[in-house]
């Protein structure tokens, strides 16, 4: 199949243009972000940032907004169901650099699926006082399979279910946050009463996880070709989703900090919201939060599976990754859906929440930096992007990645080495497969850009 390098969208025949509404896309984006950001990462961020963990979400939102600028400008010009891959190929050509960075994005999304799936299992098992053992990965795999079945039923099922679950969880989390803040006296004393001091490196490192909590906006970018009126709605959807998540994250962070000390949050870092609900709501509140977490994380897995399977299909169509059918029938996108579910399930079984989140942060930040540099170096004039904003986004990513690496080298050096080896392996694999690092794009009107 010939690929149209204009990058407007994939030319798979099963692409349903306009099948995702603005509200459905917002539900999909917030589904990924809120599922990971609040329930999976709040405790881990508090562990690094100490009493200022709520501010980590603020800084993460600012950096994410700067990062979103590159994706919005590119998506407005060329909406695509493989949005990040399209950006990278237009910047670096169809060589190993673009392909490796795009594969890192896809893998970071798979990692997010396993992170949120494992968080689902952790919360669901809390009423039974089970925090380890075979039931945790078993339930995690179960919710991934649920997302697979919904995705098989088609885009409109994903969009409708995403809207319903987004409304339920955002409303429920808002109720939790407001009532918990009320019970805590609208103050933030307990979070700073444990004696934890301010560590600048730890705080900056925590922003890596805060950024990971917002990275769900790329789900929208990667489904751009299927969103109604994409040239207008992709950017709107991204900014609406980020704005909703900023409000929700701050509300919950303040609510948790009003009812628990930092030591308590860290001790219950895998289920900190459920722990914080007990002082504010009692036992009924605890169960309410568990149910809410189940809905939120399930919708997060659903939205992430939807996006990453389409991105892998786009990479296959663009000849950026090899593809094998393994005896499966049907279109390529049905195959990549299976690959997505299998990879996420393996990660959910073999890695704990902290290491899954760390891997996701390393993969995503490296990819994000390559996107910003590529847009700045080759495409900013063509799409009318502001170079200062692009370089600020790149610089913030670099500082956060450096701080996060330093922290992890001190606390868990093994995951740093795993991440470095995995990222290196991706680049080497793509170099062997594509045989060259950089290929100058063709000089047609869709690929006009500055030379190296």
From TrEMBL:
It holds the Pfam family AA_permease_2. It comes from the Bacteria. GO terms for molecular function: transmembrane transporter activity. The keyword Membrane applies. It is found in: Cell membrane. Keywords: Cell membrane, Membrane, Transmembrane, Transmembrane helix. Its main location: membrane. GO terms for cellular component: plasma membrane. InterPro entries: AA/rel_permease1, APC_superfamily. It is a multi-pass membrane protein. The chain crosses the membrane at residues 25-46, 52-72, 92-111, 131-152, 159-184, 196-217, 238-256, 286-313, 334-351, 357-376, 388-407, 413-434. PANTHER family: AMINO ACID TRANSPORTER-RELATED, INNER MEMBRANE TRANSPORT PROTEIN YBAT. This is Amino acid permease. It comes from Neptunicoccus cionae.
